[in-house]
Design a protein that fits this description.
By secondary structure, the chain is an alpha/beta fold. Helix content is 33%, strand content 16%. α2 (76-84) links the parallel β2 and β3.
Length: 267
């Protein structure tokens, strides 16, 4: 399906939850967040139905599962299996912090997950604990090892690059990725409210001219753009109407947003 600017939209990013087991400083405020009501969050079956309609009616081919942290969503393996069975879906990927990946990697692969992006901003255990407000970097490394063993490749490492990066630390992280055959992507810190973003180093994200995605939030809102306040709820409008309206509202370029955060839209 084409948007108003002749971009072919074939990619749906799905935030399956706004919950997360980490509290990264650039993602979540220190005072915490107001979580969505469980009653507002789509069931796994409802998510799968959105994917089915998206594939049948709108040409959606690629899915990425995000959060929050997608692996804290109960039944996540079953959701992957349901999506995998939808005709027309060619690729199911996931962005995760990797903490629980050692537990789920093999089952996710069997269910139909194609590959994973794993967030890892530093090679220092101490810095990782500070950035994530308590996270264990060894758990992430175990998750990476499990993803490699399961064949969830190519594995990409998402690095949020600080405005004044620690060059030596990033060099160690790059060496670690090279040794394991992991692809590294550098994501510049963004400001949702003012629409401050750059293209990902080592990836296509952030290039508005070629953007091919819509976003489904855990509460059922289909959003046309990360840097846009518009959202169209599949429960209120129906799935097809929500898709149509999001497609029509997709801007030429993201300008800013104030009604969601990275913690509940998946970045």
């Amino acid at each position: 399906m084409l948007d108003r600017f002749k971009r072919e939209i074939s990619y749906l990013r799905i935030s399956v939850t706004d919950r997360c087991n980490l509290r990264c400083t650039y993602c979540m405020p220190a005072e915490g967040i107001e979580l969505m009501s469980h009653d507002d969050i789509l069931t796994l079956e409802q998510i799968a139905e959105v994917v089915k309609v998206g594939a049948e009616k709108f040409g959606i081919k690629k899915i990425r599962l995000t959060g929050g942290e997608p692996l804290v969503r109960k039944g996540i393996v079953g959701l992957v299996e349901m999506i995998h069975q939808v005709p027309g879906i060619e690729e199911i990927n996931m962005t995760t912090n990797g903490i629980f990946l050692s537990k789920y990697a093999a089952d996710l692969k069997k269910a139909g997950l194609t590959r994973v992006n794993i967030s890892l901003d530093t090679f220092s255990a101490e810095k990782f604990k500070t950035i994530t407000r308590g996270g264990d970097i060894e758990a992430v490394k175990e998750g990476i090892a499990a993803a490699i063993a399961a064949g969830l490749s190519p594995i990409k490492i998402n690095v949020v690059k600080a405005k004044e990066p620690d060059v030596a630390d990033l060099a160690l992280l790059k060496q670690y990725c090279d040794e394991l055959g992991l692809k590294i992507r550098y994501i510049h810190q963004m400001d949702l409210k003012v629409g401050d973003f750059k293209q990902v180093e080592g990836g296509e994200s952030g290039n508005c001219k070629t953007c091919n995605r819509l976003r489904l939030m855990a509460n059922g809102n289909i959003k046309p753009c990360l840097f846009n306040n518009q959202g169209y709820n599949v429960k209120e409008l129906g799935i097809e109407t929500a898709f149509y309206r999001a497609l029509e509202a997709k801007p030429e370029r993201g300008l800013g947003s104030s009604n969601h955060g990275f913690y509940n839209i998946g970045g």
